[in-house]
């Protein structure tokens, strides 16, 4: 194993996890001196009854709680500014995000605007623009996916410009993250499947991308093990409490891993397909993950091969010849997607060609692939990919992922 000469690792989020973890929220808020939190959520999460659970717990101990549920998928620049105004108008003193990545990232955006007393969130985009701690933020993930509850990242979409902007700073790490199985048990199988594949893509990209280090590796390997084992179980049995808890921990571990080692081509092309066509993030990750592995295989085959152990266990690892282990990892991921496709009655698309919107119209017309390949060049996530990417290779990968066929290495410029 080659150790990096230098690396940094940081996760200063307090993680409160367990079947009654939510009951700790009043105490956690009191510890931050907060009395009037703004609860940010979306309509899907509120409609599933999850805000009732959280506000029920808060009711006895707090004088006031303000709730807003108008976060759209992928967050939104305009909504962030609106919610910041709501926070100011009501003199709130903390934020509680109850939702998936869209909600948690919105909350991070709102926290930037209110803490910096800013008028434009965009002034803080990119890396390192924040210089001081923000207001208290408690993250309660309701998907086991993005890991945003422990990442220094926020991804917010400008729906008007069809762009997804990234914000990176240690100050974006929430103060506390509360993991409780009651929050994820209501996720439908389709959302469970795609958000779980997002978590798996975090762990796997963290493990083979360039900024990997022994600390991120430890988190990534544990995450791969838990997610690979429990994702099909919870997609099949949504009320499996133990499985749900394991998935929440797995996604959290994966978030810690990638927040420190960063991601690569899978997220790069995934962000671009999300900003150009609105492909849900997790679904894009599920489709692209096998291609990210295939594209980078010649650069880090031995690293990819090691993933077979946490995925398939010792017997399979030892019974697979060394030269075939990395390829086996790719086929197991394709099989996992295939299984999720069946469990979700086809809603978990296996390739871009199969992705449909809520009116069953194709989300990714083939003609749009060049636009996605181009948009990916503007997204920083390619920087840590083991192999360099460019427009032609992006397009080649997207074509294969559209059709759902394995990547033909011989046609690529690289490797
Ligand atoms: N900040 C980060 O580190 C990071 C990492 C990866 C992705 N992201 C971003 O996160 C966003 C995606 O987040 P996501 O995948 O968690 O999905 P999401 O937050 O968009 O939620 C997807 C859907 O599931 C519903 N839902 C969520 N939890 C539910 C529950 N328990 N019961 C019923 N319905 C529920 C929501 O209402 C929504 O309709 C993307 O914008 C992506 O770019 C951020
Ligand atoms: Fe992701």
Can you describe this structure?
- The protein is an alpha/beta fold and 415 residues long.
- It contains 15 helices and 9 strands.
- The strands form 2 sheets. A 6-stranded parallel β-sheet has the order 1-9-6-4-2-3, with helices on both faces. Strands 5-8-7 form a 3-stranded mixed β-sheet.
- The protein is globular and about 60 Å long.
- Bound molecules: nicotinamide-adenine-dinucleotide and fe (ii) ion.
- The site of nicotinamide-adenine-dinucleotide has 32 residues, from helix 2, helix 5, strand 7, helix 6 and helix 10.
Low-confidence stretches: none
Sequence of secondary-structure elements:
EHEHHEHEHEEEEEHHHHHHHHHH
Oligomer: single chain
Q: What would the CATH topology of the largest domain be?
A: Dehydroquinate synthase-like, alpha domain
- Global structural class: alpha/beta
Blueprint of the fold:
Blueprint: E1 14-17, H1 25-31, E2 37-40, H2 43-47, H3 50-59, E3 66-68, H4 77-89, E4 94-99, H5 101-115, E5 126-127, E6 137-141, E7 153-158, E8 163-168, E9 176-179, H6 189-208, H7 214-236, H8 241-261, H9 265-277, H10 281-306, H11 308-312, H12 314-319, H13 325-343, H14 369-376, H15 391-403
Parallel strand pairs: 1-9, 2-3, 2-4, 4-6, 5-8, 6-9
Antiparallel strand pairs: 7-8
Helix pairs in contact: 4-5, 6-7, 6-8, 6-10, 7-8, 7-13, 9-10, 9-14, 10-13, 10-15, 14-15
Features:
alpha/beta; 15 helices; 2 domains; Rossmann fold; Dehydroquinate synthase-like, alpha domain; 415 residues; globular
